[in-house]
Design brief:
This protein is α+β, with helices and mostly antiparallel strands and 248 residues long. The chain has helices spanning 3-8, 58-64, 78-89, 149-156, 162-165, 177-183, 188-209, 221-228; strands at 42-44, 93-95, 100-102, 114-120, 129-134, 139-145, 168-174, 212-213, 236-244. 30% of the residues lie in helices and 19% in strands. The longest helix is centred in the C-terminal third of the chain and has 22 residues, at 188-209. Bound molecules: flavin mononucleotide. Residues 66-67, 69, 160, 214-218 line the site of flavin mononucleotide (FMN).
Length: 248
């Protein structure tokens, strides 16, 4: 098998034959969401009603969606950030005594293996720094205040300048065992597909607010993981998308 063929295997469906996953063997399910020490500062987010939406024509939102890489150095409101977090990763329902979460985007087996971090550079009312979003509680946890977060994210994203001019960068990590517990070695392709749905959900929500975003897969894995203080093994960054104010 040459180097391409080896990598291509990941793109194929592994759903053939028998499988014996940890779920099938009765092993305990991993938590639905990551938790943090209780002494960290919590920021309750504004309730999302849908009134935040500026462009209500879904056809126009879908057709006008595009990647934006030029942002004005302006703040976005906490209401807008709340809307974007809620419409991408809020937990709408917990099924079966903590078995699965249902959210605005689809996920294979409703595993939702991602954690959402936000690198805040320009959000009204929030100190610049790194935050974690709880989709169950719809709040942010302040992980660290950092006035340099914009430039640090830019460097970890291979010097892509728009990361620093953005107002807030969504950084999604994966906790692979959430998928592996249920689908074993078949879980990895679906988890990557799920990341695509998640980011596209953000694109459409951003479009509806009249803001801009651009997906990023070209980043330095170790640098980005270190920035988030995660181990790079049981949790690591898979995708990011800086959101900013664009010229109308
Ligand atoms: C998986 C994925 C990874 C991407 N990574 C980057 C990136 O690292 N840097 C960048 O500038 N654009 C990135 N993009 C944006 C694409 O370049 C963009 O979607 C493409 O040029 C089509 O343009 P459109 O989104 O405006 O339709 C990425 C898009 C996707 C879907």
């Amino acid at each position: 098998m040459d180097r391409f063929e080896k990598q291509r295997e990941l793109m194929k469906s592994g759903f053939t034959g028998d499988m014996e996953s940890d779920q099938m063997m009765g092993k305990p399910q991993p938590p639905l969401e990551k938790s943090f020490p209780e002494d960290l500062k919590i920021i309750e987010l504004p309730t999302v009603s849908g009134e935040e939406v500026k462009k209500r024509d879904i056809f126009q939102c879908i057709m006008n969606r595009k990647s934006h890489r030029t942002f004005l150095k302006e703040e976005i409101s906490l209401e807008d950030l709340s809307f974007l977090l809620y419409t991408t990763q809020a937990v709408k329902e917990i099924r079966g005594e903590g078995y699965a979460t249902i959210r605005p985007v689809p996920s294979a087996g409703a595993r939702h293996p991602f954690e959402t971090y936000v690198g805040v550079t320009r959000v009204k009312g929030l100190a610049p720094g790194l935050y974690h979003y709880s989709g169950i509680k719809h709040h942010l946890v302040l992980l660290k205040e950092d006035p340099e977060i914009g430039s640090k994210m830019r460097m970890a994203a291979r010097d892509q300048k728009f990361v620093e001019t953005a107002a807030a960068t969504f950084i999604w990590t994966v906790i692979p065992y959430r998928g592996e517990w249920r689908y074993d070695l078949r879980s990895h392709k679906p988890m990557l597909l799920d990341a695509g749905h998640l980011c596209h959900g953000l694109y459409l929500s951003v479009e509806a607010l009249g803001l801009g975003t651009c997906a990023i897969a070209a980043y330095e894995q170790d640098d980005m993981d270190r920035l988030l203080d995660i181990d790079g093994k049981d949790e690591f960054v898979v995708y990011l998308s800086p959101v900013g104010v664009i010229k109308e």
